[in-house]
Amino acid sequence: MNKILLVDCSLKVTxxxxxxxxxxxxxxxxxxxxxxxxxxxxxxxxxxxxxxNDILEKVKKLRKACKFKNVPIILIGHGEDICLxxxxxxxxxxxxxxxxxxxxxxxxxxQGHLIPSRQPLEEEMKYxxxxxxxxxxVMMTMAGMEAELKEIYFNNELRIFGDVSGVIGFxxxxxxxxxxxxxxxxxxxxILQMAGMSEDEPNLxxxxxxxxxxxxxxxxxxxxxxxxxxxxxxxxxxxxVVGSGHTIGHPDNSSVxxxxxxVKCEPFVIMVSIVPTNHKE
Length: 281
Prior knowledge:
Blueprint: E1 3-7, H1 11-20, E2 26-30, E3 41-47, H2 52-65, E4 73-76, H3 85-91, E5 95-97, H4 103-113, H5 122-143, E6 148-154, E7 164-171, E8 174-182, H6 184-195, H7 204-225, E9 234-235, E10 239-242, E11 257-263, E12 266-276
Parallel strand pairs: 1-2, 1-3, 3-4, 4-5
Antiparallel strand pairs: 6-11, 7-8, 7-9, 7-10, 8-12, 11-12
Helix pairs in contact: 5-7, 6-7
């Protein structure tokens, strides 16, 4: 049974959404300021208010509370709110809907978001397993931290809602890239452990370089494991992107696997997209 969370939704919107969804869905309606875990919800629906900054802040906080899980955040807009869709999407909303213009279309969209994410195919696990093991080994060896794999899902979304990402490209027998993304506090803690430093010592440049080195080491480990397979690659020089909502490009015709890990109950993700150079449509 799917659980759907309505946040700050009026009675009218709640009734409309209830009418659009199947009777088997569990719908909870709660105020934004109620403390809750979002782990079990399949969709989060937030009704827009008159205060634009207030809406944007709520969307950002809800997105961060999802902890990199593939949870759609749907904003129910009214009139001019729809014109501000780009700002809401950049803040973390999946899309903006108006329930009262096309209920049938809204129903189709909501039902589409309830379709479960597909599981990785056996062939895809051939290149994902080395990244999983590489991530766990590097975290333990370099930082003394256990990285627990929580989930794998596929998402071609270019936006990333962490604070800092390390990116490395692949070429040769296979092309693509790998991305590691953290929220700032966890990145800082891991780099501290790697460098054996106290809390007041690391600076932005050190964390920046450390995140780049992490994705370099993880990808280097995976590269060794993939020698002799169609997924073997050569590595580019890693780069680092800072700022919530930044975008990362992936190769055309590639499936982007998102590997969700926890370290000390804090999440981070590795995104992997690999396409053998002899790949045929």
